[in-house]
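Q: How would the structure tokens look for this protein?
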Amino acid sequence: MPQSSPRAWAEIDLSALKNNLQVARSHSGQEIMAVIKADAYGHGLVPIAKALDHEKLPFFGVANAAEARQLHDAGIGTRPYILGATLPSEREEIAARAWTPCLCSFEEIDHFNRLGQHRPVSAHLALDTGMGRGGFLPAQLNAVLEKLKASPGITLSGIGSHLPVADEDPQFTTSQFQLFDSLIAKIHPSSQPFHIHLGNSAGLLDYQSQQTNLARPGLLLYGLSPLPEHQALIQPVMALKSRISVINHLPAGHGVSYGRTPLRRDSITAVIGLGYGDGYPRSLSGKNTEVLVNGTRCPLLGRVTMDQIIVDVTDLPDCQTGDEVTLFGKELLVTELAQKADSIPWELLTQITPRVQRIYR
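A: Here is the predicted structure in token form.
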């Protein structure tokens, strides 16, 4: 039987992904942990991992054991690193498969120590230098290091912390780097290599540590900078697209979409085949949002619905049914949409739903 093309799809530019990785490497001068959690920020966990698996990265950053298992089952060779505290039910698998956890509590240390009696678990230590989401406070560092010395089932192979406001508060972030560096000076690595990491995308771009040798970019890899002044360095990896399904000629005053937003003029309107059921936010309604129809910006009309949106193509009279529409991409950054949706680009990327087909180029 014939198979129709998708109404909504996301084009994933793997060459842009690799370009962004090289930017992260050259800008930081460090090894890179590629953060591919949350389905690689909506880009597809396994395809993105396969594209980067031969880039000699020490780790892929994932959120949990289930994501690490997906990589294992797909034959990915790069080692998963579990970002954040682990659940008791995850730890036996993590230890058995030699994935790298980050230790956030004494309870985790005790559990992994028991699991590693026959083969020590290689683990990193998480420090809380201001995030407040997990890890040991600076005042606990000496005690936790003594605890680890008495835990033969664990090999401490790294230490890291996380930046909560690297894209918002330079003064606090600078002080956080200084605190982290001063704490690292107390550590005497017992294994090689020993990875020291603090910088996320914003931290990698705008700050410098005297101690770190590993950076953890996420958003930057996908071609979006949390600091606008650095956007020109990188290339967006995802372009969200659809097509015009029908064109209507409507008189001034006619209602558009749910809630019947009235037209201000006689208009040519185009119905586009995607909506919030595809992850295009309903909160973009009434925010002067635009889309690209054949490369021309056209305003969104009325409310975003589950499966369709309506745009004004009055000033683009030559467009027709089937024409391609770009919702975001290289010429219309998802960052712009996130601002209008009162959101962040991380959220918009990760909420693109499975019915949007990913096409890798």
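The mean pLDDT is 97.

The CA atoms of residues 155 and 305 lie 52 Å apart.

Upvote if useful.
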